Protein backbone atom coordinates (compact mmCIF):
# COMPACT_ATOMS: atom_id res chain seq x y z
CA UNK A 1 0.00 0.00 0.00
CA UNK A 2 1.38 3.40 -1.00
CA UNK A 3 1.27 6.45 1.25
CA UNK A 4 -1.38 7.96 -0.99
CA UNK A 5 -3.60 4.87 -0.86
CA UNK A 6 -3.17 4.71 2.91
CA UNK A 7 -4.08 8.39 3.31
CA UNK A 8 -7.21 7.94 1.18
CA UNK A 9 -8.32 4.74 2.91
CA UNK A 10 -7.99 6.33 6.36
CA UNK A 11 -9.30 9.75 5.37
CA UNK A 12 -6.10 11.72 5.99
CA UNK A 13 -6.91 14.88 4.06
CA UNK A 14 -3.79 16.81 5.08
CA UNK A 15 -1.25 14.28 3.73
CA UNK A 16 -3.30 14.06 0.53
CA UNK A 17 -3.14 17.84 0.15
CA UNK A 18 0.63 17.84 0.74
CA UNK A 19 1.17 15.12 -1.86
CA UNK A 20 -0.97 16.97 -4.40
CA UNK A 21 0.99 20.17 -3.85
CA UNK A 22 4.35 18.44 -4.35
CA UNK A 23 3.74 16.92 -7.80
CA UNK A 24 3.62 18.55 -11.23
CA UNK A 25 0.56 16.55 -12.35
CA UNK A 26 -1.92 15.92 -9.50
CA UNK A 27 -4.42 14.45 -11.97
CA UNK A 28 -2.01 11.73 -12.99
CA UNK A 29 -1.11 11.04 -9.37
CA UNK A 30 -4.74 10.54 -8.42
CA UNK A 31 -5.30 8.16 -11.31
CA UNK A 32 -2.84 5.66 -9.86
CA UNK A 33 -4.43 2.47 -8.60
CA UNK A 34 -3.68 0.04 -5.79
CA UNK A 35 -3.51 -3.75 -6.13
CA UNK A 36 -7.33 -3.90 -6.10
CA UNK A 37 -7.53 -1.46 -9.02
CA UNK A 38 -8.92 1.33 -6.84
CA UNK A 39 -7.96 4.98 -7.21
CA UNK A 40 -7.52 7.08 -4.04
CA UNK A 41 -10.91 8.69 -4.72
CA UNK A 42 -12.61 5.29 -4.81
CA UNK A 43 -10.86 4.19 -1.62
CA UNK A 44 -11.97 7.34 0.19
CA UNK A 45 -15.54 6.77 -1.05
CA UNK A 46 -15.64 3.14 0.08
CA UNK A 47 -14.53 4.04 3.60
CA UNK A 48 -16.72 7.13 3.90
CA UNK A 49 -14.18 9.96 4.05
CA UNK A 50 -15.94 13.06 2.75
CA UNK A 51 -13.13 15.52 3.57
CA UNK A 52 -10.59 13.40 1.72
CA UNK A 53 -12.95 13.32 -1.28
CA UNK A 54 -13.22 17.12 -1.26
CA UNK A 55 -9.44 17.50 -0.98
CA UNK A 56 -8.82 15.16 -3.91
CA UNK A 57 -11.38 16.75 -6.22
CA UNK A 58 -10.25 20.28 -5.40
CA UNK A 59 -6.63 19.35 -6.05
CA UNK A 60 -6.90 17.97 -9.60
CA UNK A 61 -7.43 19.66 -12.96
CA UNK A 62 -10.33 17.45 -14.09
CA UNK A 63 -12.41 16.20 -11.14
CA UNK A 64 -15.23 15.02 -13.43
CA UNK A 65 -12.92 12.62 -15.26
CA UNK A 66 -11.52 11.32 -11.99
CA UNK A 67 -14.98 10.76 -10.49
CA UNK A 68 -16.13 8.82 -13.55
CA UNK A 69 -13.34 6.23 -13.30
CA UNK A 70 -14.22 2.66 -12.33
CA UNK A 71 -12.58 0.21 -9.94
CA UNK A 72 -11.79 -3.39 -10.86
CA UNK A 73 -15.45 -4.34 -10.54
CA UNK A 74 -16.59 -1.54 -12.85
CA UNK A 75 -17.92 0.62 -10.02
CA UNK A 76 -17.36 4.37 -9.62
CA UNK A 77 -16.64 6.23 -6.37
CA UNK A 78 -20.25 7.49 -6.37
CA UNK A 79 -21.69 3.99 -6.74
CA UNK A 80 -19.39 2.72 -3.97
CA UNK A 81 -20.60 5.53 -1.71
CA UNK A 82 -24.22 4.66 -2.49
CA UNK A 83 -23.65 0.97 -1.77
CA UNK A 84 -22.22 1.84 1.64
CA UNK A 85 -24.74 4.56 2.48
CA UNK A 86 -22.22 7.41 2.80
CA UNK A 87 -24.41 10.50 2.36
CA UNK A 88 -21.58 12.92 3.20
CA UNK A 89 -19.34 11.36 0.56
CA UNK A 90 -22.09 11.60 -2.03
CA UNK A 91 -22.50 15.27 -1.20
CA UNK A 92 -18.75 15.87 -1.53
CA UNK A 93 -18.55 14.05 -4.86
CA UNK A 94 -21.47 15.91 -6.42
CA UNK A 95 -20.15 19.24 -5.08
CA UNK A 96 -16.74 18.60 -6.61
CA UNK A 97 -17.69 17.76 -10.19
CA UNK A 98 -18.87 19.92 -13.08
CA UNK A 99 -21.66 17.62 -14.30
CA UNK A 100 -23.48 15.79 -11.47
CA UNK A 101 -26.18 14.53 -13.86
CA UNK A 102 -23.67 12.78 -16.11
CA UNK A 103 -21.97 11.21 -13.11
CA UNK A 104 -25.26 10.02 -11.61
CA UNK A 105 -26.20 8.40 -14.93
CA UNK A 106 -22.90 6.49 -15.07
CA UNK A 107 -23.67 2.75 -15.10
CA UNK A 108 -21.74 -0.28 -13.87
CA UNK A 109 -21.28 -3.46 -15.90
CA UNK A 110 -24.90 -4.51 -15.28
CA UNK A 111 -26.19 -1.12 -16.33
CA UNK A 112 -27.01 0.00 -12.80
CA UNK A 113 -26.40 3.47 -11.44
CA UNK A 114 -25.72 4.77 -7.93
CA UNK A 115 -29.50 5.06 -7.51
CA UNK A 116 -29.97 1.34 -8.24
CA UNK A 117 -27.12 0.49 -5.86
CA UNK A 118 -28.73 2.45 -3.02
CA UNK A 119 -32.00 0.59 -3.60
CA UNK A 120 -30.29 -2.80 -3.72
CA UNK A 121 -28.30 -2.17 -0.52
CA UNK A 122 -31.33 -1.01 1.49
CA UNK A 123 -29.34 1.99 2.76
CA UNK A 124 -31.10 5.03 4.21
CA UNK A 125 -33.51 6.73 1.84
CA UNK A 126 -31.46 9.87 2.59
CA UNK A 127 -28.97 8.47 0.08
CA UNK A 128 -31.65 8.23 -2.61
CA UNK A 129 -32.93 11.69 -1.76
CA UNK A 130 -29.41 13.18 -1.92
CA UNK A 131 -28.79 11.62 -5.34
CA UNK A 132 -32.08 12.90 -6.76
CA UNK A 133 -31.65 16.37 -5.29
CA UNK A 134 -28.10 16.70 -6.64
CA UNK A 135 -28.97 16.34 -10.33
CA UNK A 136 -30.71 18.65 -12.79
CA UNK A 137 -33.13 16.02 -14.09
CA UNK A 138 -34.22 13.59 -11.39
CA UNK A 139 -37.04 12.33 -13.62
CA UNK A 140 -34.54 11.14 -16.23
CA UNK A 141 -32.56 9.33 -13.56
CA UNK A 142 -35.65 7.59 -12.16
CA UNK A 143 -36.65 6.34 -15.63
CA UNK A 144 -33.12 5.32 -16.68
CA UNK A 145 -33.00 1.56 -17.29
CA UNK A 146 -30.40 -1.10 -16.52
CA UNK A 147 -29.30 -3.95 -18.80
CA UNK A 148 -32.49 -5.88 -17.96
CA UNK A 149 -34.75 -3.02 -18.99
CA UNK A 150 -35.75 -2.10 -15.42
CA UNK A 151 -36.03 1.48 -14.22
CA UNK A 152 -35.23 2.29 -10.60
CA UNK A 153 -38.88 2.20 -9.48
CA UNK A 154 -39.48 -1.22 -11.04
CA UNK A 155 -36.18 -2.40 -9.60
CA UNK A 156 -37.24 -1.25 -6.12
CA UNK A 157 -40.47 -3.26 -6.50
CA UNK A 158 -38.53 -6.32 -7.63
CA UNK A 159 -36.22 -5.97 -4.62
CA UNK A 160 -39.16 -5.58 -2.25
CA UNK A 161 -37.80 -2.22 -1.13
CA UNK A 162 -41.14 -0.48 -0.69
CA UNK A 163 -39.65 2.49 1.19
CA UNK A 164 -37.45 3.27 -1.81
CA UNK A 165 -40.29 2.64 -4.26
CA UNK A 166 -42.58 5.05 -2.41
CA UNK A 167 -39.87 7.71 -2.37
CA UNK A 168 -39.24 7.36 -6.11
CA UNK A 169 -42.98 7.43 -6.76
CA UNK A 170 -43.26 10.68 -4.79
CA UNK A 171 -40.32 12.26 -6.63
CA UNK A 172 -41.51 11.32 -10.13
CA UNK A 173 -43.67 13.77 -12.04
CA UNK A 174 -44.98 11.24 -14.55
CA UNK A 175 -46.52 8.86 -12.03
CA UNK A 176 -48.81 7.32 -14.63
CA UNK A 177 -45.84 6.01 -16.62
CA UNK A 178 -44.34 4.54 -13.46
CA UNK A 179 -47.44 2.81 -12.22
CA UNK A 180 -50.25 2.59 -14.73
CA UNK A 181 -48.72 1.93 -18.15
CA UNK A 182 -48.36 -1.80 -18.73
CA UNK A 183 -46.69 -1.95 -22.17
CA UNK A 184 -43.35 -2.69 -20.51
CA UNK A 185 -43.33 -6.43 -19.65
CA UNK A 186 -40.68 -5.97 -16.95
CA UNK A 187 -42.71 -3.26 -15.28
CA UNK A 188 -45.95 -5.19 -15.56
CA UNK A 189 -44.35 -8.27 -14.05
CA UNK A 190 -43.03 -6.26 -11.13
CA UNK A 191 -46.41 -4.66 -10.47
CA UNK A 192 -48.13 -8.06 -10.62
CA UNK A 193 -45.70 -9.31 -7.99
CA UNK A 194 -46.91 -6.65 -5.56
CA UNK A 195 -49.30 -7.76 -2.87
CA UNK A 196 -52.82 -6.31 -3.31
CA UNK A 197 -52.43 -4.05 -0.29
CA UNK A 198 -49.20 -2.64 -1.75
CA UNK A 199 -50.89 -1.99 -5.09
CA UNK A 200 -53.69 -0.21 -3.24
CA UNK A 201 -51.15 1.94 -1.41
CA UNK A 202 -49.59 3.18 -4.65
CA UNK A 203 -52.94 3.71 -6.32
CA UNK A 204 -54.18 5.67 -3.32
CA UNK A 205 -51.07 7.82 -3.42
CA UNK A 206 -51.52 8.34 -7.16
CA UNK A 207 -55.12 9.46 -6.68
CA UNK A 208 -54.37 11.93 -3.88
CA UNK A 209 -55.61 15.47 -4.73
CA UNK A 210 -52.10 17.00 -4.91
CA UNK A 211 -51.16 14.55 -7.65
Could you explain how this protein is built, in words?
The protein has 211 residues and is mostly helical. Helix content is 63%, strand content 0%. It is elongated.
Order of helices and strands: HHHHHHHHHHHHHHHHH
Number of strands: 0
Number of helices: 17
In terms of structural class, how would the helical and strand content be classed? Answer: mainly alpha
Could you estimate the helical fraction of the residues in percent? 55-70%
Query: What is the mean pLDDT?
Result: 88
Computed CA radius of gyration, to the nearest angstrom: 19 Å
Care to give the gist of this entry?
The protein is mainly α and 211 residues long. It has 17 helices and no strands.
Topology:
Layout: H1 3-9, H2 13-22, H3 26-30, H4 40-46, H5 50-58, H6 63-67, H7 77-84, H8 87-96, H9 100-104, H10 114-121, H11 125-133, H12 138-143, H13 152-159, H14 162-171, H15 175-179, H16 185-193, H17 196-206
Q: Can you give keywords for this protein?
A:
single chain, about 210 residues, mainly alpha, 17 helices, elongated
Amino acid sequence: TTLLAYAAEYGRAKPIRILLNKVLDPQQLMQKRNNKNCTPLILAAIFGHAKAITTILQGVSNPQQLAEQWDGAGITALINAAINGHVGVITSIFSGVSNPQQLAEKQDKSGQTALFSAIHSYVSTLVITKILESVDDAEKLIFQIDNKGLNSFTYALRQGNMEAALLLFDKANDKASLLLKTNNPNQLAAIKMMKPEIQDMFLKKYNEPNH
